[in-house]
From TrEMBL:
InterPro entries in UniProt: T20D4.11-like_dom (IPR002542)
Name of this chain's protein: T20D4.11-like domain-containing protein
Domain (T20D4.11-like) ranges: 130-255
Entry keywords, A to Z: Signal
Taxonomic source organism: Caenorhabditis elegans
Length: 268
């Protein structure tokens, strides 16, 4: 990936204010609170679910955690804004937790926290994936499982207004690759790829399993997939080809991302 693209991705998941909200200043302040609360640095925030995606829970959190809320924003927002929020606290709370009248209005304050959650979890996933790909140490299974979990959190936080651009798709694809990596399907492919000796010649087709050539890999899991299924079953047993169709399709869909995982210390 070139540096420019990388820069864009970091920017995407870092940006504080992607949209200019209505009533910008107060909501900017509340949004900043979301970012700080995700950092979870203050004791007072530890037991309060300010960021819950469930409106009832969030409502309750902001009611019981009012003191904590103001304690947190006093260092990040201007005084007049804090006074304004303080005066209209219940009203602000309602606009944030209430389902928008127009669900396709992505500027509705309701999406403020949804977006904050999405951005943060996307950034978490992106950084873990980057670290994994570029690692000089071998990852243990539990670390890979953790990346899966963070990825799942990212997928869960996707909502109707979250941007779906190439950076988002890249993180999604790489998350899919991480999921694939934990399947018997990939375990088998890796086993065959790691085998230094050439495979016996098969009648249906003669693949070069060590290849990194896109067109060959594509063929292996599309037009010639049934032959490949047969070979994998023969080498790794039945369990490796359970869900073969699904895994093959996912492999092909994420082929570009998968290829970048073929190298390094944590290869597929
Ligand atoms: C308080 O904020 C609301 C919404 O941001 C705005 O409409 C209102 O004018 C502000 N009031 C004061 C006194 O600043
Ligand atoms: C959070 O809750 C746990 C258990 O409910 C309690 O032990 C802990 O003291 C609480 N922490 C704070 C900072 O309130
Ligand atoms: C809902 O919001 C979208 C996006 O801002 C807008 O295009 C659409 O006209 C709105 N619908 C209604 C009924 O206001
Ligand atoms: C990968 O890691 C090496 C050192 O471990 C570093 O020099 C290099 O810049 C990293 N590449 C990326 C794309 O982060
Ligand atoms: C998963 O990764 C995150 C981010 O690096 C880390 O904060 C967390 O402790 C990890 N969880 C486990 C169970 O390893
Ligand atoms: C994601 O959502 C699923 C289904 O709602 C849930 O079972 C899972 O625990 C969630 N995972 C994370 C990490 O939020
Ligand atoms: C994969 O990368 C190649 C060359 O970099 C590109 O032409 C192709 O469109 C990409 N495929 C997908 C599915 O992104």
């Amino acid at each position: 990936m070139n540096l420019f693209r990388e820069f864009l991705i970091v920017l995407l998941f870092n940006m504080a204010t992607p949209y200019s909200w209505h009533n910008q200043d107060s909501y900017y302040c509340i949004r900043s609170f979301c970012t700080v609360a995700l950092g979870d640095t203050r004791d007072c925030q530890k037991n309060i679910s300010f960021l819950s995606s469930d409106p009832k829970t969030q409502q309750k959190a902001f009611t019981t955690g009012k003191t904590c809320f103001f304690d947190t924003i006093k260092s990040i927002c201007d005084k007049p804004i804090i006074e304004n929020i303080s005066k209209n606290y219940d009203k602000y709370l309602e606009t944030i937790t209430k389902k928008p009248e127009n669900v396709s209005d992505c500027f509705d304050p309701h999406y403020l926290f949804a977006q904050c959650r999405w951005r943060q979890s996307g950034r978490d996933a992106y950084l873990l994936l980057k670290n994994y790909k570029n690692s000089t140490k071998k990852f243990e299974a539990k670390d890979v499982a953790n990346i899966s979990k963070v990825c799942q959190g990212f997928k869960n936080s996707t909502y109707s207004c979250s941007p779906h651009d190439s950076s988002t798709r890249m993180v999604e694809d790489e998350c899919d690759v991480i999921d694939l990596k934990q399947t018997p399907f990939i375990a088998c492919l890796s086993k065959i790829r790691a085998n230094k000796e050439a495979l016996p010649k098969y009648k249906c087709v003669n693949f070069d399993f060590q290849t990194k050539k896109v067109s060959t890999l594509m063929q292996m899991f599309t037009t010639k997939k049934w032959c490949n299924k047969w070979i994998m079953k023969k080498h790794c047993g039945k369990s490796s080809v359970a869900d073969f169709k699904k895994h093959a399709a996912l492999f092909v869909k994420t082929l570009n991302s998968t290829l970048s995982y073929f190298t390094g210390y944590n290869p597929i």
